[in-house]
Amino acid sequence: MKAALLIIGDEILNGTTLDTNSQYLARQLEGLNIKVVERNTISDKKEAIIKGLDHCLANADLVVTTGGLGPTKDDITKKTIAEYFGVELVMNHDVLAQVESFFAKKNRPILEVNRLQALVPENCMVLQNKMGTAPGMLIEHNGKILVSMPGVPHEMQYITENGLLPYLEILNNGQEIIHHHLHTIGVGESRIAQQLEAIEDSMPAHIGLAYLPSPGMVKLRLTGVSEGENNTKSQIAGLANSIKQTLGTIVFGEGNTSISQVIGEQLLKTGKTLSTAESCSSGYLAQLITQTPGSSQYYEGSIVAYSYRLKKELLGVKHDTLTEHGAVSEETIIEMVEGGRKKLGTDYAIATSGIAGPGGGMPNKPVGTVWIAVASQNQTITKKWQFGSDRARNTHLTAIMGLEMLRRLLLNLPQF
Amino acid sequence: MKAALLIIGDEILNGTTLDTNSQYLARQLEGLNIKVVERNTISDKKEAIIKGLDHCLANADLVVTTGGLGPTKDDITKKTIAEYFGVELVMNHDVLAQVESFFAKKNRPILEVNRLQALVPENCMVLQNKMGTAPGMLIEHNGKILVSMPGVPHEMQYITENGLLPYLEILNNGQEIIHHHLHTIGVGESRIAQQLEAIEDSMPAHIGLAYLPSPGMVKLRLTGVSEGENNTKSQIAGLANSIKQTLGTIVFGEGNTSISQVIGEQLLKTGKTLSTAESCSSGYLAQLITQTPGSSQYYEGSIVAYSYRLKKELLGVKHDTLTEHGAVSEETIIEMVEGGRKKLGTDYAIATSGIAGPGGGMPNKPVGTVWIAVASQNQTITKKWQFGSDRARNTHLTAIMGLEMLRRLLLNLPQF
Hints:
Distance between the termini of chain A: 46 Å
Oligomer: homodimer
CATH class of the largest domain in chain A: Alpha Beta
Radius of gyration of chain A: 26 Å
């Protein structure tokens, strides 16, 4: 089954708002072996919506639209859809009850414009939206399926999980797309491709390998279609093993995981605890660590010591160390990580200190200079990294390289 | 001038990777009065690229493609583009020099597959890429412009800022799209629309108002086209004032700003300092604060006290308070914010403690229960928030509501 996504909204098209719905929908549909063959983002104007519906319904079996279903004057998707199919809008009493209950729970008065959200095209099946007031609408027409959902992400996700996916599950036809992900860190795409050249050249035609770079990492994705008795699954498993053996240390995880989850699993396994002492990463490292469910079992907390004063008072960094070497130095990072580990009373610690940018660069310490240290009771490992000039990217790289240095310490692997 | 974006990549289409390039490009083009009229995301297959080029070149004057320009076997955009225009690929020596220099700087050996990245369609103008190895390529054809760039975000951004935008600036034709943004927090879209109904009904036809909700906030965007002597600019300014007067306290900022920037400006103006004591927001509040350039002038740091032990040892929360009331309580949040403010030695502090989810909910404290407190030397303000069940959303709402409570404290505005 082929799907097309029609993302409706000037605010998406002109860049005011980032579209995260498409990624979410594509992943959900992929899990049901429904392949997204195109994704079109259009203006919330009637003509654009009609053109978009024409085009997508011609090219796909399932068309999912998001956006244009709010209670304000610039929302016209519903009316356009009703016109498109030549049907009337009718009041749906389940939706009306949901809208009234939504406002009652929040102790807010319901407005006429919200009641009108309970009008739906008479040929649609309503997909309830308990997260808001605009219902999802599903229309079957000439063997095709059109689904229209609000653009607000958590409302669209609710409707997808509770209404759309259950409906689609009955249409699945026995085919299965198999993905296998390998996660690598610290080496660039072309170097990895060179190491894997022999493996790639000998891969069967029905299996593909994609390189998915992100800052500091390259995710490798093996893909194949499994049907009935064929052995695609075991072929992919075999290829994954060959790749792991070839690449060695730089492979930090497999499947649906993250560097944060990998170190979490190791800490849980060994019953050890972790804390962090951050400067330039400003709490982002703590964020990454705590995104893994259950992290409170091994992660105690972080000291974000942005100023000299707090580096001294909270982490015990010596005044002379700061004045002689500066905050961004090996001497300071050692005192940060060892002081932090003792003050926070954990088995392991990660510390970061650097110049994230855009300002703050100096002749001998340009923007992107970052010291990272990891410490256990017996060992302190430091490394000076030279990242680029993009602040957000530097913050992210700092945190993930800190986690990777910890992984190598935990698993006794060669450090960078 | 109308633009179409053609986003190439299976990994985008199937949801593996989030497309942030489109938003970036749309914003940059909007600044030059170039309107993105459509955005299409397609597979990196030759047929899809050809269809996409046909469609976009028919509907727009400027077509920008991203993706499909890496050194690995699944990158085919360049070859397809050369075929599309019926030209050869030729070696570009500036690009070759850049590729060689890129590898030399990183102390990495250059591979043949990277040298091949210096081949470009013979009818193209090269847009240098100093962040990587794949050059941007600009082709003028039949009065249209096609620009092809790598999909890696920071490389695409470099090429856009240093190559594409300077080229486009000469084509600007004197028209100006005027946007005016107003930022509101804490009230839902339909309530705001109700309050603005009279203003909206009386707005001239050539000016539009869009509602752009995000978690906890609604951004309002007034848009009009200014040409020559017309007074769209002053009309929009007048409407913005009416809206601000009507909505009152909930408007926290105007133009290109953020809640973090607004509190930063106020702290700078008064020469005051800020620290944070976080539990459930896990460093995200520190992150938001430090994203504002210059924040080190007023922000000293954060204690992320994830465990009971660190709440006691680092913030001075009393053992009995925790055992009697739990971490998520008014009693604890008061001790966290007052203890944090004193320990970190700042004029103001924000503290957060709650249940972000997905686990951790209890009958009397369901997931989404979050206590937030702000404190000055003389005043401590607390509030219990009831957010939803989505962890990332709860983390974000916690941080922005903490910043808003601080803003109201700093400006002596009525609290929530």
